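Please, structure for the following, as tokens.
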Amino acid sequence: MTPAQHRAWVKRVQRDADREKLATLRLELKRARAAVKQRRLDARATCKNARITVQKWAQLERQRTRDAIELKRLNARHTCEAGRAVVAEHMATKRAKAERLAEVRAEQQREKLWSRSMRKVLPRAKTSKAESADEVRRNLSPDEAWLYDQVKSQLKPRPRMSPTEVFHHWLHEHEGDALRMLDERAQSDVRDLEEDERAYFERRAHG
């Protein structure tokens, strides 16, 4: 092989390698852009699921509260009626006191039932209030875990709620912020690949 042939062969090999590298980079960029779209869909689904979960909590809590109040009122009415013949003149006062007592007890019962309902609706969140950050992440999807790491310093403990449940409340209450953060993360991934592509062409132009 002559020197000229060798140089031509080296140039051809380099050109083929450049083409393969460029094709790989473009494929990665295409996949990243597709991932942006999928992440947006996944983020909306995540927020929707959190919203449905909270709505179920609220619905179950309201129903159990109504049932508890009604039961207490029936018990109070029965108690008052049993002594009507003896204390008829005090009936109105006793009924009022019984209803006030029923409301106080119903409030206590509502708090207990609310805590139980959340454990039934969110079986995967059955962790203790003292669960660690790693335990919280294991209860979440990858995107949720990433969001949790971004906002965990902002999460404030709530009575009778585990850290996982606190995060789901944050996700429900800040759906717009969550979607924006996930979208910005995906866009950042695409920008990084685009920057790699530009850098590649610049190196090739100066090479």
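Confidence is low (pLDDT under 50) at residues 112-117, 119-129. The first helix runs from residue 3 to 82.
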